[in-house]
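dumping these here so i dont lose them again. two proteins, back to back, each one seq then structure tokens. dont judge the mess
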Amino acid sequence: MIRIALWLTLFVSLLVTGEAFCLGSHIQEDPKIRVKKIMDTEENIIGQKIVYPAGQAHIISEVITVPPKTAIPWHEHLVPMYAYVLEGEIEVDYEDNGVKTIKNGEAMIEAVNLPHKGLNKTNKTAKVLVVYVAATGAQVEKIMNKK
């Protein structure tokens, strides 16, 4: 009985210290891992406060590829949208609210309920990761009939 108790004590202590069975013990922390904060904000790119839609949360993510010298049609977002430029750069025209350019490695929270258009004025393809913070069943974007 004492022998079983000793083995049980050894087994439990090895489990607690993480030394037993080597499960997952090959994973080590890597001092080369770095975290770079890209954005920390309560406002979108034109200064509107970010407001989450009511209802069941629903996240939609897309990668948008914009060829060189191409315009994205006038549109407006109906829910908050995060954009991160993976390649190239995009210029966004907000008319009276100005023109903003986001480049490779930069991010923004897009304006909500405000017509705007995007432009890739460069000779390189642009790729943008977008993440919509929506509610289930909500429309996230509306294309405008504006030239």
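---- next one ----
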Amino acid sequence: MILSQIEVEKLRPLQRNMYLKLAECYNSKSASMEDVQRCAHQTQAPLQHADQFLQNEMAQMQNRLQRCSMACQDEVQDRFPNATQPHPQAEAFAEKCLISCVDKHMAMLKSMKYNIETKLDDLKR
């Protein structure tokens, strides 16, 4: 939901502006091929930066969640070192730990969304 909201409210206007400016690059009959290419490249750069930034933010969030999950697995192994078969207490502990990871990262989504929106707003300028 957050990604679709960012896409509709931030990325689409950025894309629209890029395409309008890109069309202007090709309007000049007196511009050289290099000038047109330079204009097109400069016009597309903010959207490319936005895509890279968004991908990096999502990858960081996914990595954090994976590290938290791995920390839970390590903690279960440390607390229940002799559990060779499924152990109800170990499973309960793992579930509680994983829920805590998800809750912690869900709480981070609001600030992540704000950071993404702020960055995308900066790229519009």
